[in-house]
Design goal:
Blueprint (H helix, E strand, L loop, with lengths): L1 H24 L2 H14 L4 H13 L3 H10 L6 H14 L3 H10 L5 H13 L3 H14 L5 H18 L14 H14 L2 H20 L6 H21 L3 H13 L5 H15 L4 H7 L8 H4 L2 H17 L3 H14 L4 H13 L3 H14 L4 H14 L3 H9 L20 H26 L7 H16 L3 H14 L4 H14 L1 H8 L14 H5 L16 H8 L63 H4 L37 H18 L2
Helix pairs in contact: 1-2, 2-3, 3-4, 3-5, 4-5, 5-6, 5-7, 6-7, 7-8, 8-9, 9-10, 10-11, 11-12, 12-13, 12-14, 13-14, 14-15, 14-17, 17-18, 17-19, 18-19, 19-20, 20-21, 21-22, 21-24, 23-24, 24-25, 25-26, 26-27
Length: 678
């Protein structure tokens, strides 16, 4: 027994040496084999179990490592293995469990504090996370200080973006592209887009410099690393209204096929927002990227919520009413106080022509959530205006507490609207738009672009003014709408029409922005459409004009002369002294002096003889046998050239010299005809 124990101890010592050597070399798979052999000797060896858990973590087997920890709870207590357990839970996206494990540890080591900061960031507890990283930076001095500062700047950027908190100046030196990128994100959250672009450009430059120093890094690797920076650049372009440039850059990033599913999901979502109700087939393809595995662990709650909102809107645009209602109902159950789910449901009802039901749905929401009643009632008023119920719309607007002490309410029915009523309605519109703008600015610090509801309210105000002949007053609304979407040709046309009454020169300048007829691909064959059977008007084909006529057509102000009728031509043998035949217009058979055709005077009795027979004068008629006839080449398609001036009498018109002679001639004809080879 003593010898066996000594042998086991020696074997274990050799295995531990192997584990140590493999650990230093980073060969954790081989180290795991040696650790398993040690555990066969002593299954409750705490050090061996800890080494096994570490090897499994290094190999990425977090679930198996957590299983080992939970299996040996008596040996691996929380004091011994707290960090490894919390890390496995964190990597398995069990964030709440990881937080409990960290908090239950008896001693908060530096490793646990680092992990604690990461867990708080994932839980979006940014204030606590900021305090944790500040404590770490203040009390730590090692080679990971730059990484901690990067994480600290990421927390500040998240606060600025999602919580609309004005970030404080941390005094961090932006020496790396990660720090520049986080600083740009914080500026985007504040609405300082131009400054953010400069930071992103600096981040791109630093990234290229940093990665180009490594000879093993290819250009493709650099572009993949720059994808997230370019994604933010495209997002800024989208916020600035440069949707075409943003769309182009988004598609370039997608073609690179980055491995970050979170980045792909955000880009796909942004493309869907650009497409809106157009190009829905492309949107349906892009929405698949937002459903990739692991996306929910890469994005914040607000990002995921925005993606779900856009899915519901896409379902509405593609006429998937049931899917739209299902998604919006799910969103409303998750966030009962949120406006967008109920607005999407109301929009779907309006598409189904159920306006009364939509207004009722909005009224119920306003009653249940008084804090959001103002925005909901503005939408209700908009629906009433769209239906032509201006009075009811003004009554709804009057019920808004922020507007109830302001004048300008309409008191008559829509059919009785007069000038004073229109003025009052326009005043209400103006106050509602100003209130909405101030309300939105107070929430976003004026950084975010106008919301769809705000723009829709401006649209309704402009349409109301145009409908009632107030084009001058609609100019400011139309300019705001066109500024938000310069590609909107309909709004541009309305703006030009309004300016034509006020400033024709301005209208002329704006008309240059209209698309040319060459760029408009209507894909309609006008000629085929006009010449179709169902067309009520068929355009006649214009005759080709001569050079003189073209000059006359091109000349402006010329009066077209009536064409004079030409006199009919007289026959060549016309004798003015002789009275024309009064029956000359009748067919010959119908004339009074017609006696019928005489028999025996048929013209050119050709082909009336026996088959194979020829005339006696055929040799004389053959021009090729006459001495005086010059040799000619036969024309294509003709057998021989026949003289047209021959005076030979045909055989049937010759007088017979006698019976025997006639018989002899007939025999000669037959013989000659036999040689002809018919």
């Amino acid at each position: 027994k003593m010898a066996a124990a000594a042998g086991a101890a020696a074997a274990a010592a050799g295995l531990w040496s192997e584990v140590n050597r493999c650990g230093q070399n980073g060969d954790f798979a081989r180290a795991l084999k040696s650790v398993n052999k040690i555990l066969q000797i002593n299954k409750d060896d705490v050090t061996a179990l800890q080494c096994k858990v570490v090897c499994l973590i290094q190999n990425g087997n977090f679930k198996e490592a957590l299983g080992v920890i939970n299996t040996h709870t008596k040996v691996l207590t929380s004091d011994v293995i707290a960090f490894e357990k919390a890390y496995c839970e964190y990597r398995l996206n069990r964030i709440e469990s990881a937080l409990k494990t960290i908090q239950s540890a008896s001693q908060q080591t530096d490793k646990l504090k680092e992990l604690y900061g990461q867990v708080l960031y994932r839980l979006e507890r940014y204030d606590d996370c900021l305090a944790a990283y500040r404590d770490l930076i203040r009390n730590s001095q090692d080679e990971y200080e730059e990484e901690r500062k990067t994480n600290l700047s990421a927390v500040v950027a998240a606060q600025s973006t999602w919580e609309k908190v004005v970030p404080e100046d941390l005094g961090l030196r932006e020496a790396t592209y990660e720090l520049c990128y986080n600083s740009a994100c914080a500026l985007i959250g504040q609405g300082k887009l131009n400054e953010a672009v400069k930071k992103l450009q600096k981040a791109e430059e630093l990234c290229r410099q940093s990665l180009s120093e490594d000879s093993d890094v290819t250009e493709e690797d650099i572009e993949a690393e720059l994808a997230i920076i370019h994604g933010q650049m495209a997002y800024i372009m989208q916020l600035q209204g440069r949707t075409e440039d943003a769309l182009q850059l988004y598609n370039q990033i997608i073609k690179l096929k980055p491995t970050d599913v979170g980045l792909l999901a955000v880009i796909a979502n942004n493309i869907i927002t650009i497409n809106k109700d157009q190009n829905v087939f492309d949107s349906k393809k892009k929405v698949k990227l937002t459903n990739a595995e692991g996306v929910e662990h890469k994005l914040s709650k607000k990002q995921l919520q925005a993606i779900e909102f856009n899915k519901a809107l896409l379902a509405m645009y593609t006429n998937q009413a049931d899917q739209c209602r299902k998604l919006s109902a799910s969103l409303q159950s998750q966030s009962p106080e949120h406006l967008l789910p109920v607005l999407i449901q109301a929009a779907q009802l309006c598409r189904e022509k159920q306006h009364a039901k939509a207004v009722g749905l909005l009224q119920d929401f306003a009653d249940q959530h008084p804090a959001n009643a103002a925005e909901i009632k503005l939408t209700m008023a908009q629906l009433k205006i769209a239906q032509g119920s201006v009075t009811k719309a003004c009554m709804i607007l009057r019920s808004i507490e922020e507007l109830q002490h302001k004048p300008g309410m309409v008191s008559k029915t829509p059919s009785e609207l007069h000038e004073e009523d229109i003025d009052s309605a326009i005043e209400v519109f103006t106050q509602a738009i100003q209130w909405y703008q101030q309300h939105q600015a107070s929430q976003t610090r004026g950084a975010s672009p106008k919301s769809p509801v705000h723009l829709s309210l401006i649209r309704e105000a402009a349409n109301f003014k145009l409908k009632h002949g107030r084009k001058k007053e609609a100019i400011s609304d139309l300019e705001e709408l066109w500024k938000q979407n310069p590609k909107d040709v309909h709004t541009l046309a309305q703006l030009i029409s309004a300016y034509s009454l006020v400033d024709p020169e301005k209208a002329k300048v704006l008309s240059k922005h209209l698309p040319s007829s060459d760029t408009m691909s209507l894909k309609v064959d006008v000629d085929a459409l006009e010449n179709s059977h169902g067309a009520t008007y068929v355009r006649k084909k214009a005759a080709k004009l001569t050079g003189d006529n073209q000059q006359k057509e091109q000349g402006q102000g010329e009066v077209k002369k009536k064409k004079k009728k030409k006199k009919g031509k007289l026959p060549k043998n016309y004798d003015p002294k002789v009275t024309p035949d009064p029956e000359r217009w009748l067919p010959m058979r119908e004339r009074s002096y017609y006696r019928g055709r005489k028999k025996g005077k048929k013209k050119d009795q050709v082909g009336k003889g026996t088959q194979g027979s020829t005339t006696t004068g055929s040799s004389e008629l053959d021009a090729s046998r006459t001495a005086s006839s010059p040799p000619t080449s036969p024309r294509p398609g003709s057998g021989a050239a026949v003289s047209a001036t021959s005076n030979v009498i045909p055989p049937r018109h010759q007088k017979p010299a006698g019976a025997p002679a006639t018989k002899k001639k007939q025999q000669q004809k037959k013989k000659k005809g036999a040689k002809g080879g018919w």
